[in-house]
Every structure is written in structure tokens, then in C-alpha cells.
Automatic annotation (TrEMBL):
Domain of life: Bacteria
Role of this protein: Poorly processive, error-prone DNA polymerase involved in untargeted mutagenesis. Copies undamaged DNA at stalled replication forks, which arise in vivo from mismatched or misaligned primer ends. These misaligned primers can be extended by PolIV. Exhibits no 3'-5' exonuclease (proofreading) activity. May be involved in translesional synthesis, in conjunction with the beta clamp from PolIII.
Entry's family note: Belongs to the DNA polymerase type-Y family.
Biological source species: Arthrobacter glacialis
UniProt GO MF annotations: damaged DNA binding; DNA-directed DNA polymerase activity
Protein's name according to its UniProt entry: DNA polymerase V subunit UmuC
One GO term describing the cellular component: cytosol
Record Pfam families: DUF4113 (PF13438), IMS (PF00817), IMS_C (PF11799)
Keyword DNA damage (UniProt): yes
Entries under InterPro entries matching the protein: DNA/RNA_pol_sf (IPR043502), DNA_pol_Y-fam_little_finger (IPR017961), DNA_polymerase-Y (IPR050116), DUF4113 (IPR025188), Rev_trsase/Diguanyl_cyclase (IPR043128), UmuC (IPR001126)
CDD domains per the UniProt record, alphabetical: PolY_Pol_V_umuC
GO-annotated biological processes: DNA repair; error-prone translesion synthesis; SOS response
Amino acid sequence: MPGSDYIAHVDVNSFYASAERAFNPSLEGVPVVVLSNNDGCVVTRTAEAKALGISMGEPWFKLAPRAKAWGLVALSSNYELYGDISARVMELLGRYSAWVEVYSIDEAFLGVNGTPERMRQLGRTIKDAVRRHVGVPVCVGIARTKGLVKLANKLAKHNPDFAGVCHWESIPEDARDGLMSRLSVVELWGVATRLTNRLNAMGIRTILDLKNANPVMIRDRFSVVLMRTVMEVQGTPCIPMEEERVGRDQLIFSRSFSTPVTTAAAMGQVMSVYAQQPSARLAKHGLQAKVLTAFAGTSHYNQDNISYPSVCVPLPMPTADPVLLHKAANSLCERIYEGVKYVRAGIMVTDLRPTGNQSPLELFENPHEERGIGTLLESVSKKYGRGSIGLGSAGVRGGPDWSMKRDMLSPRYTTHWDELLLVKAS
DNA sequence: TCGGACTAG
DNA sequence: AGTTCTAGTCCGA
């Protein structure tokens, strides 16, 4: 990160809910939650929803009876909208630093420098620009290490004194220690419940306790990952800024069902629909897979008839071909017990490599790809909608009854002409 | 090299 | 009745 001694971390507040609010002002000031796939559990809460005591991961069916009394609005995940809003935020951030690492759908690290005053001003500029041009609220943390910058962002979010921008070194040193002595180690990046329990057992409870721990002892008793965390809160950078990752090591498509699947025949239907997703995603990234793993599972909450069948199939050649993937995934059916209630299934492709440099022999052995079936499937479903065409039993009419539930879906405001927001002037 | 443990978002 | 999904790193077998 040449020329940048500092890192700014920009993070959208309650991202999914804020993206919804950008197009639906009636959600402003109201408690809003966004639900996971299948409307299963809460994945995003606004400050108002948090204030009601709603926790992350809380199942919607437990919340639903109280929603009306609370004035709580629940929405299904609208990933198409969030993806587009995310792209707009990231594009905008690119104007403020030559070094942007997009870390997740709603977060980025930016290489920055300057005097404390100038960096605080830059933070405010970014915050205002994202709000004004994209319509979502962000907070900004600025420090020398990724560990501290994530902490600074958290302070900016929860402490109104910072007004959304926290430059760590602008805080006097004794006040920084005071803040760290009041925060549990769970608040740190990379520390969750398991590590917190183990650290607490050793008497390390606060971030300040951990900062004062010996990194070598931490490495020996825990791992190099936690040692790096300790050094980062001490102010020594250990986690470098990353280049954009070009390829993936693996690609997973997995979903829970709205209704359990109980027969091998139905699972075959699931596999034929599911296989088309990794196929399309591989093609999109110009990748081919050598190995496919198909899996299914019963509910974690149902203790009888537990079953987690899986098959790992070496593919005859590196491929993204839906026909070959479907055929491989279908072998999962042999592991399905009739009558057992499977609630989820998925397909994982691994050993990925870029398309091309195939030997002529492989091309000869791979007739489907040559005929462009994947591309054909994709263009037809693009034109006539998902489910309009499919391979094998995915092509059956009537529609499967196990597909995903999304009862509270908002429009795809920014990516589909027919779902554009209508504004009336009077 | 593989699978399990743990984590993030 | 019902409790997400994707992807990474590290570590021990």
C-alpha cells in the first residue's frame, strides 16, 4: 500500500435494511429486520429492532406473533438489490483512495494518509458522499492496523460522540486504554464465543487484558491468528491489505427447503435444479470444476432420523457443463433414506481451474459443452424467467413445492425495469 | 492432503 | 411446522 500509513474502514450500518430504506422512506425510524433465505431467521436489524431486544439469528416464526404489536417490519432478502447498492458504494469509495480492498458486501478498507485533522475530514466527506449519492448510512474508522480500524469503526457506530467517524489516534492514549478496558474480547475481529470462553477461563476478559498479553504465549496456547489479533491491537500491522481475489477455491450452492424432501425421487428433482446454479456461476467466472460434492441434511433441531448423506464425485474432466454436473449430483439419490425428512441440500464444486487449455481429446469427450447447452439454458431462463427451462426432472411443469420461501420480498428497484419505483408528482 | 473447528458477514 | 448461506484459515490426523 505505497504511500499510505493509515487504513480507513468503511462499513454500511445495518446494510440490508438500509438498502431497503433507501427506496422505501416509510421504513425510516421504524424497526426493520431482514430475513435469511427461506424467511428463516433474522440476518439484519436496524437500531430500532435491536432496541426491541431482537437478536441476530432469531427465527422469524418466534418473532412473527409479536411483530404487529411492535410495529416491526420484516423483509425477505433481496440480494439483487443489495448487490447493486453494494457496487454503487464501492465505486464511490474508489474516488477517495487509490487503494481499496472490498472486504465484503458492505465493507471496504481504504489506504489513506495525512494529518489527523485531514483524515477525520476525509472520513466525514466519505460518509456524507455515500449518504447523498447512494442513500445509505456508513461509519468510518481510521487507524494503522486492520484490527484497530475495525474497533474504531465499532466505536464510531455505537458512540454518538464520534458522529460516525473515529480516528483512533485522535483519542488520548489513556482514554483509548479506558475504552478497551470496558470492551469484552468478543468485540474484536476474529474473536467469537469459543475463543471468548477460552480466554475468559485464563482471566483475559477485556480487550485491554488481551492487548497486555504476551503474543508468543497466545500463539502457543491458541493460534497464530489470535497472536496476529493481539499484535494488531498493540498497533503492529500483521494483516496486510489484499489484492482483489481473482478466483475462488470452491463454490457452494446450498439451500434449505420450504417443505422437507422425503424421497430419493424428489431429491433427484432438487439436484437437477440445483446443478444449474454452480454451472452458471462457473461459466460466469470462466471456471471449470474437477470435483463435485452433493450433500443433504436433516434438521439440527430434529433429533430423530438424523441423516447427513453426501457424495464426492470426481468429474470425468474439468467442466462447467450442467449435464455433467447434474449427472454427478444425482448420485446423491442413492444415499437418501425414504421417509426421512431432509430440510436442506447443496452442491459444492472444488478443484476449480480457468476454462480453456483443454486437450483436443477432452473436447471430443465433452459433447454437451460443445453444443453450448449451458449458454442456451441461461439465455432461455434470462428471457423467459427462472424455471422456464431445465434439465432432466428440473424441466417438469407444475413447479416444485420445496423451493425457497420469500413472502416479504421488496422490488428489485435498481436492476429490473418493471420493478422500478414509481414516483407521483401532484 | 483431507476434514474438522472456528470465524466473518 | 418452522432456526441462512458462502467462504476463508489453521491445525491435527
